[in-house]
Design goal:
The chain has 12 helices and 11 strands. By secondary structure, it is α/β, with parallel strands linked by helices. The strands form 3 sheets. The protein has a 7-stranded parallel β-sheet, sandwiched between helices. A two-stranded parallel ribbon has the order 7-9. Helix 1 links the parallel strand 1 and strand 2. It binds NADP nicotinamide-adenine-dinucleotide phosphate. The site of NADP nicotinamide-adenine-dinucleotide phosphate (NAP) has 28 residues, from helix 1, helix 3, strand 5, helix 4 and strand 7.
């Protein structure tokens, strides 16, 4: 039995899509079954929450390998550690963990990467076999710029003129599904990226040509971005966590080159920005308020 957590999320939903109708039994852990987009005869649903020990124990019963992912938030490490403990108690043999490029338990100045590194470390010392998927920035994050594209034709942020490592979340899901099904990936860590790194200038220009709307990148200060993030309702701690994460990449403190993990593990080429934009065209254009769909 394979267990998929975060099954309604960007990556988890892709893991479920990859495993649907495969010759394996799959259980998904969800807080709200109505949010689960994919159903298949080999998929059963367990309702639960990382914060609810009893629901975790029930979901983990009879599980051989699990995919671990939860939201990017301040409780990420705490909730995932609870899962690691519960999985160990339940006798799970392998865990495939969604981590991030640059994750490191000793990363003092980038707390989110430290949190994910701490989960990596907890898994490594748990006695369970672990695979860490250190994913690059998801193309899907670009959906959050829909409103500013619609209003101003702008993608704005403190991203500087540096090449960022990107990946389509669906490719991370495909790698996770492959790692769940093949124990040869146990004990491995993979940087999971698309084939090329791109600056935000390049992203804006290429999205504009695919969507046939003018889009430009506007570099703004971290302080201005702080105001926007606060206005969007993020907690003060999360706002600072996001800013320091972006600064670590924008300043070149963390540099990650593209890898061929997607191709070697799934046998498929990683999706490009163009693939992403075409597949999400309707959502991007709807967000951009255009009639050009
Ligand atoms: N965005 C990026 O560029 C990026 C890059 C690299 C790594 N990451 C990492 O990827 C992770 C986020 O992955 P994602 O984008 O696929 O997630 P997501 O789309 O934000 O979805 C989060 C998933 O976790 C579930 N979840 C949250 N809290 C839970 C709880 N207490 N109990 C049970 N389930 C819970 C959510 O369920 P509900 O539907 O109930 O909310 C949802 O299925 C974070 O750890 C982040 O650091 C992100």
């Amino acid at each position: 039995m394979l267990l998929v957590t975060g099954a309604t999320g960007n990556v988890g939903s892709a893991v479920v899509a990859e495993l649907a109708n495969k010759p394996c039994k799959v259980r998904v852990l969800v807080r709200d079954p109505a949010r689960l987009g994919i159903r298949a005869p080999n998929i059963e649903v367990a309702v639960g929450d990382f914060a609810d020990a009893a629901s975790l124990a029930a979901a983990l019963e009879g599980v051989d390998a699990a995919f671990l992912a939860s939201s990017f938030d301040v409780r990420m490490a705490e909730l995932q550690m609870r899962f690691v403990d519960a999985a160990k108690r339940a006798g799970v043999a392998r865990v495939v963990q969604l981590s991030a490029v640059g994750a490191n338990a000793c990363r003092c100045c980038v707390r989110t990467l430290r949190w994910l590194g701490q989960v990596e470390q907890a898994l490594q010392t748990s006695g369970m076999a672990a695979t860490h998927l250190r994913a690059a920035f998801f193309f899907q994050n670009l959906l959050s710029f829909g409103e500013s594209i619609a209003r101003q034709g702008v993608i704005a942020g403190p991203f500087r003129n540096i090449k960022w490592p990107w990946v389509d979340a669906r490719d991370v899901g495909a790698v996770a599904a492959a790692a769940l099904m093949d124990s040869a990936h146990a004990g491995r860590s993979y940087d999971v990226t698309a084939a090329e790194a791109l600056t935000y200038h390049e992203v804006a220009q290429r999205l504009g040509s695919i969507l046939h709307v003018p889009i430009r990148y506007l570099d703004v200060s971290a302080n201005e971005t702080r105001g926007h993030l606060q206005a969007s309702g993020s907690s003060p701690i999360l706002v600072e966590a996001i800013l320091e994460l972006w600064d670590a990449f924008a300043s070149g403190f963390i540099q990650i080159n593209p890898t061929d993990a997607v191709r070697t593990i799934t046998g498929r080429q990683p999706r490009s920005l163009e693939d992403f934009a075409c597949d999400y065209r309707a959502r991007l254009l709807k967000a951009a308020g255009s009639n050009a769909a």
